[in-house]
Amino acid sequence: MNVLVISASPRTIGRTGVVGRYLKNSYDVELMDLAKNPLPLYTGEPAQAESEQIKDFRKKVLDADGIVLVSPEYHGAMSGAAKNALDFLSADHFRYKATAIMVCAGGGKGGINALGNMRTTLRSLYANTIPTQMVLDPVDIDRENDTLMEGIVPKVQGLMEEFFYYTQAGIEIRKAKAKG
Amino acid sequence: MNVLVISASPRTIGRTGVVGRYLKNSYDVELMDLAKNPLPLYTGEPAQAESEQIKDFRKKVLDADGIVLVSPEYHGAMSGAAKNALDFLSADHFRYKATAIMVCAGGGKGGINALGNMRTTLRSLYANTIPTQMVLDPVDIDRENDTLMEGIVPKVQGLMEEFFYYTQAGIEIRKAKAKG
């Protein structure tokens, strides 16, 4: 099982990166950090599709059996960097694949609109976004030790457990579809 | 009254650009075309805030009394380029200002999710997004003459008339607030 975590904050010092690194350190997953390796702005130009960086990004998502998308909430939606990354992709990259969505927000009721935005967009890419989703508030992040606070870990574990079940289910479905 | 139209497609050959140019040619508005003058990817770094391009962009929005945001729908949401542009802005740029939202979509039921995404994001920026909104399908665009098809023009006129009323209302509110 090949799982890709996309940390989709454009800020190198953001809390989203902490979540991405936590997942990388806790599970057998690959991490793509859009702050450390930013994608160019999507233009739709054919030359862009030929760039090594874009070919590599598309291949990584294509090769993944499941994708975890972690984004900060900016202005009631996923980051522009997150949406821009998804603009390079199509249903070919997501069909019959599980996706899990996590949002870093500022507290209060924040984060829910970004989750809704991500779910709608991933639906239009034909991903199977799992029902469990989560918002991580500043209180959930242990910045000093670059990890998560203990209290939030069981919720992340529950989400990841569900995600791996659905990722496996997607693998089975794609296998069945390939057989015809 | 100072009105800014943001054409928020990253594609130079897109239909969104046609809409932007139509508005520029039909009304007393300024046009900012994000395909012709792309913004960098937002990083939150202080150096970025000091760049002339970002200072100029922020000032244009700050000086506007009302903003028309035109975006293509990509994957059930506004373009990454549109969201990335908004990530540079805050409620300081939008409070007590009217915004109008228009989306270029591929036909069928397309475009509605992007309008919802734009409205939610502009709400979080404290803009007053007017009730009338519209989707422009390929059938509404006269690519050959780089303009709109005649049939859709009355709907655009209705939207713009409402938008100008609300933009004027916003001017009055800001004036009253400034007096205290």
UniProtKB/TrEMBL annotation, chains A, B:
One of its GO terms (molecular function) is oxidoreductase activity. Gene3D superfamilies: 3.40.50.360. One of its GO terms (cellular component) is cytosol. InterPro entries: Flavoprotein-like_sf, FMN_Rdtase-like_dom, NAD(P)H-dep_reductase. It comes from the Bacteria. Residues 1-136 form the NADPH-dependent FMN reductase-like domain. PANTHER family: CHROMATE REDUCTASE, NAD(P)H-DEPENDENT FMN REDUCTASE LOT6. Belongs to the azoreductase type 2 family. This is NAD(P)H-dependent oxidoreductase. It comes from Mangrovibacillus cuniculi.
